[in-house]
Design a protein that fits this description.
The complex is a heterodimer of chains A (464) and B (420). By secondary structure, chain A is an alpha+beta fold. Chain A is built from 18 helices and twelve strands. A six-stranded mixed sheet of chain B has the order 1-2-6-3-5-4, sandwiched between helices. In chain B, α9 packs across α12 and α9 crosses α15. Classes of the chains: A alpha+beta (464), B alpha+beta (420). Chains A and B meet through α1, α3, β5, α5 and α11 of A and α2, β5, α4, α10 and α12 of B.
């Protein structure tokens, strides 16, 4: 086999599939405005269904952060003729799994069931979408649980650091400041009335994207899906908010004091891009090299060479509005400044020197090699891929042309993108740890800084 | 049905191959039958530490090369260590198949031990321990629960190891562990994905078969003596919410009652309609969530429960309600419909594990190691079907006896008394 290949084709990356394609799917708009996407495939006897309402964090009224996810959770707690307990019981009896939640741009229901139970499962989903009852006692229960989840998150610094970072990084009024997560303050403000009003505004035909991937017969399943979607009123389509460019005039530092922490968890951010930005493919490569895989510069420096942490990575947010590029790691309290210094050193070198042709080649192969199992292998992954296309206004070429776009990326254009987006100036630092032990050492990173106690309410610091 | 082609190399290594051409990728899982149960006091955690060392260079592929070459070829890897096994997991495009066989064989046969790298990796593992145990209420409490539930058997120490052992194991300890655990005849290799059995077998013969057979780890002799009464342990530390965990001794994976444990697990904790979720989370609102259940193990294991207690509620209230539910299971016959619901849930969960080539590799390898044959995968649904209401009642009465339980509570304290 190998002998038949031209001798030029020696590197593994060249042997990889030159192209991946999204499997064929159908798209149909229902009379109430809902969009129905269907992709049949028959590897295991399961069907994945995703009901997505546009909106999410971007649709939350000021001070009511968390309402999108809480509304989604409550929709499954009593709908049509079924009580909350009845829905749980009926879904479990079918072997189905349902999760409900919200992210920055949508609220979603992810349902997976055995193929032969499709009529029952889709009938329950239809009720949840169009006929939720919002029983008073369930509302009280869910709000109280949400408040306790915030308390539990603050017991885990690794979980809390991301939320504090958003509170620092995004300005007042920006929908990503809370990113759809509730806190003690917003939970206390929510009422059944408000949740009902929010539901009526957002759960409309024009906001709904219904996606099914898996083991079904398209003709008979389409009837079930149409029935589940079509009892929603058309309503008004959600008008997505605009947000100004993220720009920082100076470095800032938020230190969240958790006196019993034996490690410092840190996230350091700079302005990044949105999902449709022309630099996306270049920055996916850049992020892979910087902190997106095990051999990345950050992990190699902080973990492999220095032994300062179990892991160091970088995050490239890709949402509808521009997000962050952030360094993320943790280290024992005593080595806090040492680890941050090393991370900043890696950033400085990357921002100024960029990547080599060899690094580009390696990152390209890594992204292509992992893409099929990360995005296209399971029905739930395909549901996510299809949901992204609709939510971000993309078409199938987003996936079908992904490999050609990677292939055509040159080291010059990669480095130009790195220079445009990676910067060592005006960084935003968020640290969770033992403040009295590290405060002096980290003062050098920013003149503008504040210390807050993990016990104070919410995740948004006072203005820094 | 999961189809597997099974082969044993002349050095005793078992090769299991599953073809699946849905995506042009491969999952390669190597199960070494060595874990924290094969350790002793003073070197606890060394199996897990060794898992890290396997990425730090061998004879042909030096330090960092395993990851560099693999990622450059479009692959990704990880590994995990448990009480019973150390498993290396490689995911890659089919074009990297031969490279992976070459690199795996290199590190199984000729790992190098650089003192500088050992020291740096010690820091990495200490940080892992700080994150997964010291800075996690769950981690701290779980460690104390196990240290109390087992008094003799090695399952009493944490897989990651006690902090003092992580600080002090030596080069000789590491080399001895390598010799003990990494014999080819102590390994089951599973290849799942876009491959043919013929090509995989040819590569296995070329790269893995020349590795000489060695003595496998000595048998674990200690048998945990029967528990003679309830045991309790408390952890006091700063926290917003209390936490409660319980452990009951049960049999090992090959215990004929294991399918019954799985059905009981589902009745109590599977999905939102499960008995404990409905009572503790929804009706009495004592806890935020219910966790736990059973996992297959080589030696007798545990039926675990864990609860994040709600603010203003006491762990004792949760205990009382839990004991009533466990009692009810042994006193009253489970209604036929509820039993059928559990079977449906287990069957659907089984299919969910078959969705990916990685899931199939893990499932096939786990059945081979824990149940004695990969083919048990295909019998799993029938075994669950056979579990009766009488089985549930009999096993619940035996397992959930008060004298068989260990209870661990995390009590929030306002002041930090923990020294870093």
């Amino acid at each position: 086999m190998k002998l038949l290949l031209p001798t030029l084709l020696v590197s593994a990356s060249v042997l990889m599939p030159a192209q991946v394609r999204l499997p064929e799917f159908t798209r149909e708009q229902l009379p109430n405005g809902a969009v129905l996407l269907m992709l049949p495939r028959h590897d295991v006897p399961l069907v994945s269904v995703r009901a997505v309402f546009r909106g999410g964090a971007e649709s939350e009224p000021p001070g009511k952060n968390g309402i999108a996810a809480i509304t989604a959770e409550l929709m499954r707690r009593g709908a049509g003729k079924r009580s909350a307990a009845r829905i749980d019981l009926d879904l479990d009896f079918l072997g189905a799994e349902l999760s409900a939640g919200a992210n920055r741009q949508s609220a979603f229901f992810a349902l997976e069931f055995l193929s032969r139970t499709a009529p029952e499962a889709m009938a329950i989903l239809g009720d949840i979408l169009a006929a939720p009852a919002f029983p008073e006692d369930e509302v009280r229960k869910v709000l109280a649980q949400a408040a306790d989840r915030v308390r539990a998150a603050k017991d885990n610094p690794g979980m809390a650091v991301g939320r504090y970072f958003n509170g620092l990084f995004y300005p007042a009024g920006h929908p990503y400041r809370h990113s759809g997560a509730a806190d003690e303050i917003s939970v206390a403000r929510l009422s059944r009335e408000e949740i009902l009003t929010y539901y009526r505004r957002m759960a409309t035909g024009k906001n709904l994207i219904l996606i099914a991937v898996g083991d079904f017969n398209p003709a008979s399943f389409a009837a079930l899906a149409r029935r589940a979607a079509s009892s929603l009123p058309p309503g008004a389509a959600f008008q997505t908010p605009q947000a100004g460019e993220l720009r920082f005039e100076r470095p800032r530092l938020l230190l969240v004091d958790k006196p019993d922490a034996t490690q410092t968890y840190f996230r350091i951010g700079m302005p990044g891009i949105h999902r449709r930005h022309p630099d996306r493919v270049a920055l996916l490569v850049a992020n892979t090299l910087f902190g997106g895989r095990f051999t990345s510069l950050l992990n190699d420096t902080l973990r492999v060479n220095a032994g300062l942490t179990y892991g160091a990575n970088s995050i490239l947010e890709l949402d509808r509005l521009p997000g962050a590029i952030a360094i993320n790691s943790y280290t024992p309290t005593a080595t806090t400044a040492k680890a941050i210094d090393l991370a900043l050193d890696v950033l400085r070198r990357f921002a100024t020197s960029g990547a080599t042709a060899e690094q580009l080649e390696s990152a390209r192969a890594y992204i292509k090699g992992n893409f099929p199992t990360e995005r296209l292998e399971t029905s739930d992954q395909l549901c996510s891929a299809l949901a992204d296309l609709e939510l971000f206004g993309l078409d199938r070429s987003d996936i079908d042309s992904f490999f050609p776009q990677l292939d055509s990326l040159t080291v010059e254009s990669l480095n130009a993108a790195i220079r445009r987006h990676f910067t060592e100036s005006n960084l935003q630092f968020c640290l969770v740890g033992n403040a009295s032990a590290i405060e002096k050492d980290v003062a050098k990173y920013a003149v503008a800084r504040k210390v807050v106690s993990v016990k104070s309410e919410g995740f948004v610091p006072p203005e820094i | 049905m999961v189809q597997v082609s099974e082969h044993t190399l002349s050095n005793g290594m078992k090769i299991l191959i599953h073809e699946d051409h849905d995506v042009p990728n491969v999952a390669f899982y190597l199960f070494f039958k060595v874990g924290s149960r094969n350790e002793r006091p003073g070197v606890t955690g060394i199996s897990h530490f060794f898992e890290h060392m396997m990425f730090n260079g061998a004879k042909k592929y030096g330090p960092k090369q395993f990851d560099i070459q693999m990622e450059k070829a479009g692959g990704r890897n990880n590994a995990y260590t448990s009480r019973d096994v150390t498993v290396y997991t490689d995911w890659f495009p089919r074009s990297a198949l031969e490279l992976m066989f070459d690199m795996e064989a290199d590190r199984i046969r000729d790992l190098s031990f650089d003192p500088k790298i050992v020291e740096s990796e010690r820091g990495v593992v200490s940080s892992e321990r700080r994150t997964s145990v010291d800075n996690s209420p769950f981690g701290v409490l779980f460690e104390q629960l196990n240290a109390t539930a087992y008094v003799a058997h090695p399952y009493q120490w944490p897989v990651i190891g006690w902090a003092s052992d992580i600080e002090s194991w030596t080069m000789d300890d590491l080399k001895a562990h390598y010799r003990m655990g990494y014999a080819p005849n102590n390994c089951v290799a599973v290849v799942s994905g876009d491959v043919t059995p013929a090509e995989v077998l040819a590569l296995a013969k070329k790269y893995l078969e020349p590795i000489p057979r060695q003595e496998p780890p000595p048998p674990v002799r200690t048998v945990e003596p029967p528990q003679l009464g309830e045991r309790r342990v408390e952890v006091r530390r700063p926290a917003n919410l209390p936490m409660l965990m319980l452990s009951y001794h049960i049999g090992a994976a090959r215990d004929p009652d294991f399918p019954v444990y799985e059905v009981i697990e589902t009745l109590l904790t599977g999905g939102r309609s499960a008995r404990l979720h409905q009572r503790l989370v929804e009706k009495e609102q004592l806890v935020l969530n219910v966790g736990g259940g059973v996992r297959p193990s080589l030696d007798p294991g545990q039926f675990l429960f864990n609860f994040q207690v709600r603010s203003g509620r006491q762990p004792a209230e949760v205990e009382k309600a839990l004991y009533e539910e466990l009692d009810r299971l042994s006193r009253e016959t489970v209604p036929a419909e509820e039993l059928q619901k559990s079977r449906n849930q287990i069957l659907a969960g089984f299919y969910r594990q078959l969705k990916t080539i990685a899931g199939k590799a893990n499932l096939v390898g786990s059945y081979e190691v824990f149940s004695g044959s990969w083919n048990q995968v295909n019998e799993a649904p029938a075994r669950i079907e056979k579990v009766t209401a009488a089985d549930v009642q009999r096993v619940a009465a035996k397992v959930f006896a008060p004298r068989n339980r260990t209870v661990a509570t995390l009590i929030p304290e306002q002041r930090a008394e923990v020294k870093p």
